[in-house]
Predict the structure.
Amino acid sequence: MKKTYKIDVDCANCANKMEDAARKTEGVKDATVNFMTLKMSVEFEEGQDPKAVMQKVRDNCKKVEDDCEIFI
Amino acid sequence: MNKKQKKMLIRILLAASLMVLLHFLPARGLIRFACYLVPYLIVGYDILLKAGKGIRNRQVFDESFLMAVATVGAMALAVYEDGDYTEAIAVMLFYQVGEWFQSYAVGRSRRNISELMDIRPDYANVEQDGELMQVDPDEVPVGGIIVVQPGEKIPIDGVVTEGRSSLNTSALTGESVPRSVKEGEEVISGCINLTGVLKIRTAKEFGESTVSKILDLVENASSRKSKSEDFISKFARVYTPLVCYSALALAFLPPLVRMAVLGLPADFGDWIYRALTFLVISCPCALVVSIPLSFFAGIGGASNAGVLIKGSNYMETMSRVKCVVFDKTGTMTQGVFEVIDVHHSRMEREKLLEYAALAECASSHPISKSLKKAYGRPIDRSRVTNIREISGSGVIAQVDGITVAAGNVRLMRHLQVEYKECRHVGTIVHMAVNGVYEGHIVISDRIKPHAKEAVAALKSAGVSRTVMLTGDTAAVADQVAAELGIDEVYSELLPEGKVKKVEELLEKRGEKERLAFVGDGINDAPVLSRADIGIAMGAMGSDAAIEAADVVLMDDDPVKIAKAIRISRKCLGIVYENIWFAIGIKGVCLLLGALGIANMWLAVFADVGVMVLAVLNAIRALFVKKF
């Protein structure tokens, strides 16, 4: 399953870091962050609850880049 | 400007004016330090906080950390020497100015590009109890009737049920000549209604309509990252820690060597200053922001010209296309058969066409259709009796009691009618009326008006090889190829044959060269996906084409192929310029910094200045009109 979320982040490098952090989150198969459109699309692994996974993704992203937001 | 940007601007201005005031303050020692601390904190407190949080989360090598270390270090040096605090504050100030500018420029270009692609309709007009109501296009059911007034966008694909108008399709196709529509014709969402009121019965839901699909495609395009973007993000990952360790080494190794080996004074202050300069230069932001921005602007500009590129990776591949393979029918020709001429007939042209159309009335073959179209009047089937189709040859029928035979050479031989060969290329329908030869009708596919220009434009865009594939006969194919100036032609291919031919061509191409296949998206999907890059034409309304191809040309003008290649070349040119420019300047400045020639001011330029220039350069990719 694939979902797209709106995000808010200030710099392009930070967006790259968020992408990295999201990819490493458990339950995420793949993730891409598009800095230009400020969107993150996340592909979840089978049988995962997107809401719960996204909470973790947000926590992990906050760790690498304090100044970011994901609108779940 | 958004709220965040306004706040930042106020902080920058406040700190800058405080700096000017403090310049005239005669304070000394710690009081002076305390005074200068105020503007420093005003402009840089968030950076310090972020750096602190970064350390707590074990994410030390980010740019706030670099800036915090550099400026705190410079402050400390200034305290130690009771010297100049302005430098540290100025560095922070300029960094923030740069950040502010970046955020402003990126925001601006984001808005510019989305304005460019502003084809999203906000509402649909629905008639309720004789009054027009504006509703969300999402709420209109399939088969519902919507009203589009002059000046409004058509929100949903459908068929006109009432009214006549002309439509501006330029947002979709880049084509500036308006298209006229009347009752019964299909219209596509995203077009702007220019003259008359139209009532439209919707054929699709809003989400399935052309406009939604295109928007979706363009918005997701930059998520497919190119090699250059991957390279940059990997580069940034290695580069930042590398520079940090180098700075650390620069701060301590040379002084220690000086002390221990050379017996000179350590000069820690000087070397730490150099290391801090190093850190300021190092920020990878110019690279990291300008590359995706160039692609984004390029894709935005291209879509404005009616060329949809589905991803930055395709933009990159496209720029390296050296060999273009065309499908003939529907790509270089219109794919509609037309009666071109009537030869050697003693009858009137109209009369002969009437006989031919009537004899062929039962068939739905494209050739028969073209005959009926050329005849141009409704066909009275009761005039035709006794139709016999002779497979692979033609038809014999009684029209108004007269025997009419229409077919190829084989049919004429079969009937033992003497016929005349035709020197023209195309499909020839020989006619025998009452057993007497009455000449032949030449039917041919029309070459598209701009096809020849398109091939020439490709050549001048640096494409070295053009190839045409077709299922048609060699005679027709060779003639079309010669007329258009296409280098190679392979005819009488079945659909699988086309895939094989493309595979052969793929093997023969050079290592760095890429091959593009151009088709109309109908039954050439396998070829489209097999080529390095598949270009589908005339995608207005054809979902299959949008799905199968990597690049979609919104209208069916082949000149757009060359345009697409030029756009991608320009975009990639800008990308490389930015990569080399940013890495080059940074490299030089790092070297100068290590040698102690560069001061903080140069360092700030290397960071912020380079970024600003790279962003401005990236925006150039947006402008694609002049081709």
Observations:
- DSSP finds 20 helices and 22 strands in chain B.
- The longest helix of chain B spans residues 559-595.
- The CA atoms of residues 496 and 526 of chain B lie 9 Å apart.
